Please model this.
Amino acid sequence: MNWADLNLMPALPELFMSGAILVILMLDLFISDAKRGITYGLTLLTLALCALLQVKGYAATPVHTFGGMFVNDPLSTLVKLAMYGSTAIVLVYSRQYIADRGLFRGEFFSLSLFALLGMNIMVSASHFLTLYMGLELLSLSLYSLIALQRDSVKATESAMKYFVLGALASGLLLYGISMIYGATGTLDLALVAKAVKAQQANDMLLVFGLVFIVAGLCFKLGAVPFHMWVPDVYEGSATAVTLMVGAAPKLAAFVFVLRILVQGLETMVADWQAMLALVAVLSMAIGNITAIAQTNIKRMLAYSTISHMGFLLLGLLAGTPDGYASALFYALVYVLMSMVSFGMLLGLSRAGFDCETLDDLKGLNGRNSWYALLVLLTMFSMAGVPPLAGFYAKFAVIKSIVDIHLYWLAIVAVMMSLIGAFYYLRIVKNVYFDEAQDTAPITMRADMKLVLSLNAIALLVLGVMPERLIELCIEAMKQSLTVI
Amino acid sequence: MFTNQLSLVIWAPIVAGLLVLATGGDQRANLARWLAVAGALIGFLLSLPLFTGFDNLNGGMQFEEIKPWIATYGIQYHLGVDGISMLFVILNSFTTLMVVLAGWQVIQKRPAQYMAAFLIMSGLINGAFAALDAILFYVFFEGMLIPMYLIIGVWGGPRRVYASFKFFLYTLLGSLLMLVALIYLYFQAGKTFDIQAFQAIAKIPLNVQILLFIAFFLSFAVKVPMWPVHTWLPDAHVEAPTGGSMVLAAITLKIGAYGFLRFALPILPDAARELSWIMVALSLVAVVYIGLVALVQTDMKKLVAYSSISHMGFVTLGLFMFAGSHLNQWAVEGALVQMVSHGFVSAGMFFCIGVMYDRVHSRNIADYGGVANKMPIFAAFMMLFAMANSGLPATSGFAGEFMVIMGAVQVNFWYAALAATTLIFGAAYTLWMYKRVIFGAVSNHHVEEMADVNKREFLVLAVLAIAVLGMGLYPQGFVEKMHLSVNDLIAHVAQTKL
Model:
């Protein structure tokens, strides 16, 4: 690589973030526990500045750097901005919760930022190595975040489970990548796409590689049959960490899948379409049906995540630019919805009490009707009932499935959606129809209350005016997926 | 009157509902109630120009509004009413006003949320009737399930949780399948969701038409409700509070029949012709069998609920009276008149039951007897509604039933004969219930303590009674509004799309 040709500008936000993490890490050593708010503030400042740099460095057509390993395109800009916003919101929601549980330490923030850095690299990758690097940085940071709650048996168990299974999945992924390398002779996504398109031989090797890669990808997304870690990790971790694991990383995982399957291996669409169809149907079925039996809300939301990922994969497997855009839209709306639901759990928890079970939500309307309304908005959005944003997400995905004439798949998808509606309704029932069992006053920090309210209202606003976000997704896809 | 009359009719109640919600908790209950009645009244007054400003000589859409909404998916904010939908928008705004007045004193727990739910639902239902874009219709159609679910579940009877879940999931099942059908039609109609574009699709093969018709059928048959997917209705009606039952019976059932008129018939005429025998059979089952089921009920609300199913069976019968390729005009217009009339009559019946329930807290016929001795004014009003439910001439109940039977006779004598049994069954179950509850000697001390109607209840009863009588004596006033639109519909359905 020629040092003179190295253009660092496309990677400026990531470079800035790396520097900021190191600064925060160092500064935090000299900050006492009482003044930990400074670290918190610095982290939020870092996120704001990164977002600013991201917007300033916006490139309307893809710009490659680091010898073609790193790309800055509209898709990565959109997703990264969403991730910055999501991480910032998660930190705001988590502030009181982690303070009450002795987790308000500098490591929480630096690990979160490391995870975000890993996600950024994943999202901006145009080379298998960069993808893997970002994935590992993200995963290792998340494992550590979960294990930060070292006095909790459940948390350490979750961390171990996630670590072991994650290592296995990464291994599968690497094995698949190595097979692709063996078949095509390159690790650059664009060159891989060219090679796959050109060559007819070594089909078997490519397909084998694809299977292993899909296995690794489905693990990261949390899709059946690689979903077993999701309920345990979601339930065992502290709710704040659950949200950190479940929000932005889903966006990164989606783009990860997109880059490999669509930018790299689009020629093999017939193969991965069939695989993803099976995975999607199983995810929707198992996710929705098992969620009905849950009494722990975090576990229930974990299974609901599995079903949502199934829906996401439907958009992906459509194989059309509209389908990819609808999957991206679905991912963005999903992150918004899950932030509100976990955020509410965080808000209802207090020192010594975790709001976790269905019974803890009973009678919320009597305790605070505004929070009850927020829960109503997010639950109906998750169920896909108009006029909330979740409906348009499901609608867009089903539309792209009908477009490729897979009518039976569309019918199965809506039927699964119906089954899923039940457990969201059950939460609304607990909130509105039942008497409160936990009658303690709800204390939420003012900034959290504001952000939570805006977050939930955004679901309603997007439900009335989704056009702008849909347009953004379609534009981002169109500009970023280069046809070779 | 205003250029955006329809938008006002939809959004004014929703905004009013949000304002009522903003009044907060139970401390400011009276403010919430007065705001709600003001909002409902404004909503009703805004809908009147739709009637007075309606051009009877125009069979197409009036008061149209088109604005781009989600252009990427071909979805527009397209509103409009014709002779068919205009009547229901007004019926809905009217019923909302009655419902707000009905729930005045009865609802003590969170009245602000109660009133807000009804107002928001009213706006959403208006939107469903006025929408001319398929996804806009769908958004309003499903959106109104949310407030209804809350109304049944929070303020309903002992088995309200079961009833609210059943109502929501049953209705959701059908409409989700309809969504897939709508998306399919979008691709057929050249990537637009405009309902009139759907109706204009020139060619659809018969087997595809039948599949699409089944999807629409499942959605609207659950809403109407038709036998055998009617089982959610008795539970929902019985467990809902009085206001909820009134809106359910008067309005929500009509959206199902409206859906047949707006979607299934004009878009899929050949499938409608092929499958009309099923629709007629199911409708006659509803009329005869459900009429018999109503006869043996011991719970007043359940009786009226089954009576609603029976009357709606009449409506769906009228909508599918094909003589050759043409629908019978008498039958379709009769069905529409019956829909409007049933709106008034069932609202009246449920309100009457609510008045009695507020005093005695029982819905069982056995717990009543001789109410006329203590509540003579009320008994007189209930007599009118009971007679209208039975289809007595000079009440609105007769006009619609007569027209449908006339139309059925022109198609097939036996359809008419079986349909006419509704006149017998309707009289049987309604009047028998009336006799057991109202006539005779005072049966127990609960009835002894019943006080006659107060001013508010008198107002609601009087207004509904005037509506019932007015429509019964001069149905032409309603028929002339819908005549040309029905003509256009029949002409459109007569064309084949094979």
About this structure: The first strand of chain B starts at residue 62 and ends at 70. The mean pLDDT of chain B is 92. Chain B touches chain A through 37 residues (CB under 8 Å).
